[in-house]
Amino acid sequence: MSTITIDGREIPFKAGQTIMDAALEADIYIPHLCHRPGLKPHGSCKLCTVDVDGRSASSCTLPATAGQQISSNTTDLNEVRKTITQMLFVEGNHFCPSCEKTGDCTLQAVAYHLNMLDGHFPQFYPRREIDASHASIIIDRDRCILCALCVRASREVDGKNVFDIAGRGSDAKLIVNAPSGKLVDTDIDRDDLATHICPVGAIMIKEHGYEVPIGRRTFDLHSVAEPGIEPVILRKGKHTDE
Amino acid sequence: MEPSHDHTNQSTTSLIATANRDHMNCDHLLHRLYAIQKQFHHIPKQSIPALADELKLPVSQIEAAIDFYSFFHRTARGRFDIMFSNCNSCGDMTMMQYLCDQLNVVPGETRSDGAVSISDASCIGMCDQGPALLINGCTITQLSNRRLGLIAAYIQDSVPLEEWPIEWFEVHDNVRKNGLLLSDPFEPGSGLLSAIKQGAETMLANIDQSGLRGRGGAGFSTGLKWKFCREAIGDAHYVICNADEGEPGTFKDRVLLSSHAHTVFEGMTICGYLIGAQKGYLYLRAEYRYLLPSLQAVLSRRHKAKLLGKDILEQKGFDFDIEIIVGAGAYICGEESALIESMEQKRGVPRVRPPFPVTCGYLGQPTVVNNVETLAAAAQIAVQGGDWFNAHGSDKSAGSKILSISGDCLTPGAYEYAFGVSIQRILDDCGAKDAQAIQVGGPSGTLISPDEFERTLGFEDLATGGSFMIFGKDRDLLKVIQNFAHFFAHESCGFCTPCRVGTTLLRNSLDKICNGKGTEYDMDEMRRMAALVKRRSHCGLGQTAPNPILDALERFPELFHERLVHSDFEPHFDLDAALEEARQLTKRDDAEAHL
Ligand SMILES: Cc1cc2nc3c(=O)[nH]c(=O)nc-3n(C[C@H](O)[C@H](O)[C@H](O)COP(=O)(O)O)c2cc1C
Ligand code: SF4
Ligand code: SF4
Ligand code: FES
């Protein structure tokens, strides 16, 4: 069986797997935000950046090939990841203490994991729209990190096409596929994967605020680096750990 | 600017875009949006659902594209819609302000009577004959305040563009130095005949032997690229000519397309013959829309001459056709996979690689993407042979390179040199004395200082896609760098975090330093961010965006230090600037309203 080496540990991989796939299977955590197993790799957040034989690469998109020497959990790379996380924070409007997603938010969890203590850079303070048109789902674009997980989940799993990313550069934004641009005019459903997959508090279920107390939320009980955490993140708010 | 010079072979293309529908697919999203905007001066929201129905595309895909391309607008532009180039070489923002003052227009806004709107645009490729602007998509060059005064008068009197002096719309080739490609009178069909006679295998070997490497910047071996594509399995193969030419300071593809279009199209057709493609596309940047009629005419002539279409040159089964797609203002669409996305009617976001276009390109099929100049060279190689080409140039860089020379010199224009030529020789030829710096290869390339003028052009030393911008001793070089930083922040596609956020942070840091508010701390921050963006971005845009800053920090550190305030820290937050909105609301601008 072919292998790759991550931080000195040799792990096997199957043909067609990416470095991220192989790492997750071997219970090695490489920080990531725009990747979820089962969805087409996207490669946009760059949190999963590793050095492969000395060259920078996104582990979620680069196919594993035999003999790759990969560094991932190094001081330098974690510093890069922390900076990228800070960039994501200052680019949007994140008010963690008053956000319903706090404690269940993967961005926040990754920030803790990387020991990020502040936003570091000057805030961009963008003006972004809220869409509260739908009876049970709300979009708060202030927190969107443009990871396109919802876009892919809707297309690839829900068999719909509810979301897209529009525009260019720092004006890029999440849009809704309806002539009105409003969520209420789409066929999105409360139970769709797209409704639940958002790693931050940009797509949320209405009228279910603060049911799980702070202190008992996903990342109060788990580390984002824990093997098999993905399903737990998705189950958030269902008191599974109580 | 002096239009004549020893080596000049003048040819001009003039025109107000009156393109027909030949060799274009009117149903392409970008073309439909262009047509709608032409009618309504913007893309009305109500038009989108109908367009989605018509093109069988999701509404969101159309919405996403409209906001991606700079040339599409959501709110009505003026009946005269003007975009001034903001390029270091073909732009002049004081002229833009001058025209705004003349016409009582606020930059970026449409005058209340709907007559005129004025804004700026990234380099429009007229660096040898600037300052330049686009008006309703047509190019006007060689601007002066006098000409702007006349333009203002025409606009005030609502004189239709067709009645404006035709010479204003002339674009000169300004070829100053001929070389392998520019001097050769190319006989249409000669390359194809030769390719057919040699047979595909031999011809391909010949291209390989010629040592031809891509002229679009990356310098990949053309022979290898074609071979990979030929060997790739697919339902169809495609040839794409990359005429996006968006790198500021580059205009040599414009010259090739205006005076050597046959050679370029022949190169595409030969490529089609070798890789087994039946369809080729020319992706033309919107700034060159004025070239459409002449390009369409050349394609029609080639059809008549049996150099395109079915059974080309009586070869049974050799079918090849070429279509033109016009972009809509996005530098990133020059990146080959973003270009393909744009051709597929989407936002021009670079794809994840691998797979590369040679195996999985347009519509998921094997695709060759080549620069205009690469294809023209291939056509010449077909006629003259690989050895002829390889005999010129340097060890690692065969053949010649057409440069777009602009900036502070006597004779800007297109110059063709065999690779290996020194920078000093080029400066002597174009009459550039007292240059303090040269930007070789455009902002994504290398900024060099006078002690490097003995360096040479070529893949082994100074690679260039063709841009060669000269900055004389009187230029504010930091302002030049600041202009480039703004360019990249504006053109970042927004896909990946390092470039989307990083180019904005770099721009802001540089603005702060240029405004005399920067400190050593900001310098350190800028260095750190530049390194991150360069190393961790998804595509070539982000990976090169910090180059001007890094090069300037290394070669001209005093530029920055002269402007620093000598304290450890100054906040980014500018209290006075933050009051601007309040001042506008209260219509005050007196001393009391400032801090
Ligand atoms: C941001 C960016 C812009 C580019 N713009 C152009 C362009 O305008 N024209 C071009 O030929 N290549 C451009 N390229 C390079 C193309 O991706 C590609 O390498 C080239 O078209 C291949 O053709 P060649 O092998 O003939 O050079 C650009 C690359 C990047 C990253
Ligand atoms: S809404 Fe959430 S899932 Fe969708 S792109 Fe934004 S952050 Fe990602
Ligand atoms: S590097 Fe810049 S242009 Fe390239 S994908 Fe990332 S955001 Fe887009
Ligand atoms: S997880 Fe790989 S780029 Fe986002």
What does this 3D model show about the protein?
The complex is a heterodimer of chains A (242) and B (595). Chain A is of the alpha+beta class and 242 residues long. Chain A folds into two domains: 3-73, Roll (Ubiquitin-like (UB roll)), CATH 3.10.20.740; 99-241, Alpha-Beta Plaits, CATH 3.30.70. Chain A has helices spanning 19-25, 75-91, 106-113, 149-157, 193-196, 218-221, 230-234, and strands spanning 3-6, 9-12, 49-52, 55-58, 69-71, 130-131, 137-140, 163-166, 173-176, 203-205. In chain A, strand 3 and strand 4 (55-58) form a beta hairpin. Chain A is globular and about 50 Å long. The relative contact order of chain A is 0.14. Chain B has four domains: 10-169, 3-Layer(aba) Sandwich (Glutaredoxin), CATH 3.40.30.10; 176-390, Rossmann fold (3-Layer(aba) Sandwich); 401-472, Ubiquitin-like (UB roll); 478-561, de novo design (two linked rop proteins). Chain B has helices at residues 29-40, 47-55, 59-68, 93-103, 145-156, 190-198, 200-210, 222-231, 252-259, 261-275, 292-304, 336-343, 372-384, 386-390, 423-430, 477-491, 497-514, 520-536, 540-544, 547-555, 557-561, 575-578, 580-586; strands at residues 12-14, 80-85, 116-121, 133-135, 138-140, 170-172, 175-177, 238-243, 279-284, 321-326, 367-371, 400-407, 413-418, 435-440, 446-448, 467-472. In chain B, the strands form four sheets. Chain B has a six-stranded mixed beta sheet. In chain B, strand 4 (133-135) and strand 5 form a beta hairpin. Chain B starts with 11 loop residues before the first strand and ends in a 9-residue tail after the last helix. Bound molecules: flavin mononucleotide, iron/sulfur cluster (2 copies) and FE2/S2 (inorganic) cluster. The site of flavin mononucleotide (FMN) has 22 residues of chain B, from strand 11 and helix 19.
